[in-house]
Amino acid sequence: MWKYVAAHYKDKDYIAAYEIMSEPRDQTLSSKQVAAVYRAGCETVQAVDPATPCMIGSRSYYKLYAFDDDTFLEGMSNIIYTFDYFNPDKYVFNNGISTYPGSYKCGDLYKGWVPQCCPNGNRNLMVDFNEKWHVDNFMKFIVSFRDKHNVPVFMN
């Protein structure tokens, strides 16, 4: 399918990137498993249209917290890495975190991501939800990934 799509669009000047698999939903898959799908799709697209970038993200809904070294496609170029930033979910979707700035339990700010985000996995630790909270998220998960692998990262 990706070979057909790339062949059809390779000569169009308005294609920014091929997004191989938008926001993978299967939370049981590891970063390595998701990256294998991305690699196969990007290799197929780039064999037909090497000029247009391939856009990929982390496993599990493009969450920035899921970016790790296994997300990086070693040896591949012309890849744009992307993530969604609707954080915290409970604030964005008006479901229990209603004040900004404010102080909340770490587990409420990082619902589903306590092991990756809360110090010592302490979901009850009180955390300030403010501008620094956002900057710290970008620095820890995205800027460090971008700098380590020297790749472009796009925020949805």
Main features:
4-stranded parallel β-sheet; TIM Barrel; alpha/beta; 156 residues
Any overview of this molecule?
The structure is a single chain. This protein has one domain (2-155): Alpha-Beta Barrel (TIM Barrel). Strand 1 (18-19), helix 2 (31-48) and strand 2 form a beta-alpha-beta unit. A four-stranded parallel β-sheet has the order 1-2-3-6. It has helices at 2-9, 31-48, 59-62, 89-92, 106-109, 114-117, 131-149, and strands at residues 18-19, 54-57, 79-83, 102-105, 126-129, 153-155. Helix 1 (2-9) crosses helix 2 (31-48). It is an alpha/beta fold and 156 residues long. The mean pLDDT is 94. The protein is elongated. Helix content is 39%, strand content 14%.
Helix fraction by DSSP (H/I, runs of at least 4): 25-40%
| Number of strand elements | 6
Helix count from the secondary structure assignment: 7
CATH class descriptor = Alpha Beta
Instruction: Give the neighbour order of strands across the main sheet.
Output: 1-2-3-6
Determine the CATH superfamily. Answer: Glycosidases
Biggest pleated sheet: 4 strands, parallel
Shape: elongated
Report the sheet-strand fraction: 5-15%
